[in-house]
Each structure stands twice: as structure tokens, then as C-alpha cells.
Amino acid sequence: MTGPPTSETPERGSDDCRLCGAPTEARFVQTVLGRHPVAYRQCAGCGSLQTETPYWLDEAYGGTALNLDVGAAQRNLINLAVVSAVATLLGSRRIVDFGGGDGLLCRLLRDAGFDAAVQDRFKTPVYAEVHGAGSLEGYDLITAFEVLEHLAEPARELEPLFASGASAILTTTATYLGQGPDWRYLATDAGQHVFFYSDAGLRAFAAAHGYQLIAQDQYQLFIRPPAPRGLKLYALRNVLRPSQLRWVKLWAAMRPTPGIERDIDAVRLRAKASRVV
Fold this sequence. Notes:
With 277 residues, the chain is an alpha/beta fold. The protein has eight helices and ten strands. It has a domain at 72-173 and 198-261: Vaccinia Virus protein VP39 (Rossmann fold), CATH 3.40.50. It is globular.
């Protein structure tokens, strides 16, 4: 996620859960961005953790914000392998990367031959400028990596993904299991992580939108029923396991890249057409 999740956080009359709407209870206070004392509250219904209404987001995403995401390049390579494997197992060809930032994952997927696009409201996809997605509809698989925890209003902001009709949605986020104020994933120095989902909260949200959840470590795969069973389910769980990623990465790296030549031709044709006009 490369910018503030929403520019207009609505007024709230209570501290109810921003995912399920149930009441929340105070858990602890942490200092965000080095100067804001922020209350963290746990939902009494779904068990998720959230900050108080995040009034500091403009500052957190400003030009002077501390960028701690030094693992972004490696994460794209890992996600290329996982998405390639999941898409192959599910028979997905059209993929859109929601909150895809500079478009690097989209570019890598297109190199591998997938019909991939990227959508990010806050950053130009420099690696895939001609492959921006105006809508999430019409795609087989939606990916959203390290995005969910940035959403100030998750119930509202996740709605377009689950209403898109996609057969599957693949996300990453660290789930909340009762961790305390020293949990590294709070990322208080950057101030951009504002909602932390429990497994129960994710499953309930998925079920309410007609999806089943296959969760493995930090990956969440939401699938429209009937969910895969038997060998396919076993294979899906394995490609989401960190212990298997070295083999999945090797397989993805050795695949041919037919999309490079195809997209060079497409860009040339587009440039030629713009000159004619």
C-alpha cells in the first residue's frame, strides 16, 4: 500500500469495530510516529484489534514519513511465486493486484504470461503504466499484499473486492492472536498499520460475502464455494507455506516469460496509434 487508504475517514459516534460493528474494549496505548499516544482496542465480537480513529494518516503517508518497507522487492519475488502457483492450481488467467504500488508484481506476472493488471489509488504503476485496472470486476483472481492492515475502514474498503465476482482473493496480513504493545506488526514508527484482523473476523467477513477462507501463515486465500478438496487443497496449503517457498520460487523463476515480447509489441502499437491521432 503506497498511500493513505482513505482521504475522508467518516465521523464516528463510538469505538465500535470497523470490521464487524461490535463493541470494542481498550487493550493498551502505544506512541505512533513518535508523538501521538494512540489507544488500541480489541473487538468483543470478532476479536480483531484496531487503533482509535486514525487521525494521523496524512502525516503517516506524507513525504517525510519513515519508509520501513525495505523488504518490498523480495516480497514481490515471493509473491510472484505464490500467485503463479495459486493461479495455476485454480486455473486463473486474469489477475489484478489491488494496492499494487509501482506495479512490479503486475509486470512480473505479465512476463510469466498472465493477463495481469494493477490498481492503486495513490501511486503510478511505473512498471505497468499501460496495465492499470479501472475496475476490479472481470478478474479471476484479486491479490492484495500488505494492504489489509492499512485500511482505516476495512468493512467498507474491502467491499469492492468481495463484490467483484472474482473466484478467489489472495491477501497477506499478520493475524491478531492477542499480541501486546510490543508486537512488531503494529509498526508504530511508520503509523500506517491501523487494523489487525483475527482469524475469526476474517472468516466471518468472508462468509458474509459468500467466500470460504484458506489461511496459512500470513497468507489468506478467499475462495467462492465449493472450496478445493483433496490433493488440490493440499497443494494450495503447501504453496502458501514458507518452508515450501524456495521450491515454488525456483519453479516460478525457471518458467518462460512470453509476456515480455507480447507487451513490447502492445506498447509499440499503442505508441504508434497515439502518434497517428
